[in-house]
Amino acid sequence: METGWLVLFSVALGLTVGAGFVILLHAVERRGNNAMSIVSSSVPDGIDQVIDAIDFAGLVLDPSNNVVKASTAVYTYGLVANQILAHDEIAELVVEVRRTGEPVNQEVTLARGPFGEASIHLEVQVARLGSRYVLVLAEDRTEAYRLEETRRDFIANISHELKTPIGAISLLSEALDVASDDPAQVRRFAKQVGTEANRLSQITREIIELSRLQATDVLATAKRIDMSAVVSAALDQNHVIADARGMTLAVGGSKHVEVIGDETLLTLAVNNLVANAIQYSPDRSRIGIGVHHTDGVVELAVTDQGIGIPDDDLPRVFERFFRVDQARSRNTGGTGLGLSIVKHVVQNHGGDIRAWSQVGQGSTFTIRLPEASSDSVAPQGEKR
Ligand code: ADP
């Protein structure tokens, strides 16, 4: 429990509640917003002030379970309607606390969004306040919950991703042993071992790349970078495969647009986008790479005429290891880490990335970065 909560609990429980009260309802405009606050003349002053001061949800219930004091956040979360506590689970906690006299602490989930698809995780504490009142405090733990979930998923995914090629290598080594008298079979299995080993090394390389990106501040060692150089380097890395599949890589837009950053990382990001565009498009299709700049923002868009991404999956493609079609991506050597790396590179450069896609029509991934102004210098004072 946080120290602030402990203090608040101590203050709350230490205060006595006077008898014979009249509830006054006031609409109080406070701290620049219009949240309604309900004040009871008999709620002790100390509690009034503490609830006014807290930026998390806190409310006081009278013996009839009317809300007699509530902080602004209570209304933000929709915990109160018509001066009544509107959350069943918390209301049950209140009943329990009245019955036992013991404070309780529990995590509750609020459904949010038009279809209840988003959740808010609140850590709720309920305690008696004197003999008549009950105090409810709720702290938003959604961010911590989400981080923990991402961490758990990441570890589960890494284990899964590593287990697949390791398992294959182990089986192939047994197969090699059995086929030791058959040179053709040995060559075939040896080739497969090589493929799986490459896969393992690509996954480890990309995981290391990702952790490095999360730990470093790119802009501390940044230089002025010409985006044309980034685009040509990324195209060079993809020409062979594009040519082999009869695909056209068309570059357009403004020349000599500059950003402040790290050329290797920016090339890696654009390379990943172009490689994906090739990977998820049919032979002989066209891929466009355009660079534009307006109002100090550089936009680099990679557009393909490929298979596209379903609407439901689109927001998830930047998650680590997320793949629309697991089997297809894995068969073509995908790790599900490419777009996550792009997102981190772009964020480290103070930019963002957006994706547009239509199934069967194609996709466009657009990176936006702050443009280097004509007189801006690299952080170390380097000037061209
Ligand atoms: P992968 O290594 O699997 O390509 P990425 O992180 O680069 O991983 O991409 C995540 C998923 O997003 C891919 O598995 C694929 O399903 C989808 N995807 C990415 N780029 C495209 C694209 N240009 N067209 C269609 N689907 C794409």
Short description:
The chain is an alpha+beta fold and 384 residues long.
**How many individual domains?**
3
Question: What integer is the average pLDDT?
Answer: 83
Strand content of the residues, in percent?
Answer: 25-35%
CATH architecture of the largest domain: 2-Layer Sandwich
- Global structural class: alpha+beta
What spatial form do the alpha-carbon principal axes imply?
extended
Unique bound compounds? adenosine-5'-diphosphate
> What is the straight-line distance between the termini?
54 Å
**Strands side by side in the biggest sheet:** 4-3-9-8-7
Order of H and E elements: HEEHEEHEEHEEEHHEHHEEHEEHHEE
Overview of the molecule:
This protein folds into three domains: 47-140, PAS domain (Beta-Lactamase), CATH 3.30.450.20; 145-215, Helix Hairpins (Orthogonal Bundle); 219-376 and 380-384, Histidine kinase-like ATPase, C-terminal domain (Heat Shock Protein 90), CATH 3.30.565.10. Helix content is 41%, strand content 25%. The protein contains eleven helices and 16 strands. The chain has a five-stranded antiparallel beta sheet, with helices on both faces. A five-stranded mixed beta sheet has the order 11-13-14-16-15. A two-stranded antiparallel ribbon has the order 1-2. Strand 13 (286-294) and strand 14 form a beta hairpin. The longest helix is centred in the middle third of the chain and has 37 residues, at 142-178. It is extended, with a radius of gyration of 29 Å. The relative contact order is 0.08. The model is unreliable at 15-41 and 380-384 (pLDDT under 50). Bound molecules: adenosine-5'-diphosphate (ADP).
